[in-house]
Amino acid sequence: MTAAIIVGLLTAGGTYLILQRGLVRVVLGFILLGHATTTLLVAAGGVGRRGIAILGQQGVAEQPADPLPQAFALTAIVISFGITAFLLALAARGRTVLGGDDVEQPAEPDEADRG
Questions:
Q1: If 69 and its partner were Cys, which of 45, 83, 84, 99 is the partner (CB 3.0–4.6 Å)?
Q2: Nearest 5°: CA angle at 100, between 96 and 104?
Q3: Domain range enclosing 85
Q4: ∠ CA(64), CA(81), CA(32), 5° rounding?
Q5: pTM, rounded to two decimals
């Protein structure tokens, strides 16, 4: 129940930030959506209801956790990191070229482009 609430709040916050005009806010929205995805995948693995994923250790429950959702969560973390790095590089370049991070502001043409 707690994981579902966390996923819902992260998804709502991420969606709200993605719909903003500033590119840095869009990046933060994608970060929140990445965290929501990771939380959803970990919660789907049943880690709270089962034991650890590795067999042969002391204190292992009768039914071990499924390691596949944990592998999917690690993959989602790597993909989120890659998207974040790309969008931050895009935001830095946009700030250099456009002078700001407003995605709806049209670029002013240079004097070389006019003539």
A1: 45
A2: 120
A3: 1-46+65-98
A4: 80
A5: 0.74
pLDDT in tens, 28-49: 999 999 999 999 988 887 666 6
**Which residues, in sequence order, are CB contacts of 39 under 8 Å at separation 6+?**
3, 6, 7, 10
Tell me which residue has tokens 């956790």: 65
Summarised one tens digit per residue, pLDDT across range 78-114 is 999 999 999 999 888 888 887 877 767 665 655 555 5
- Over the range 51-69, which residues count as b (16 or more CB within 10 Å of their CB) and which as e? bebeeeeeeeeeebbeeeb
Amino acid in position 57: Q
- Please list the helix, strand and coil fractions of the chain in percent, rounded to the nearest 5, in that order: 65, 5, 30
Residue 109 falls within a domain, yes or no?
Answer: no
Distance separating the N- and C-terminal Cα atoms of the chain = 62
Q: Which two tokens stand for residue 10?
A: 């992260």
Q: What is the DSSP string of 15-56?
A: HHHHTSSBHHHHHHHHHHHHHHHHHHHHHHTTTTTSB-SSSS
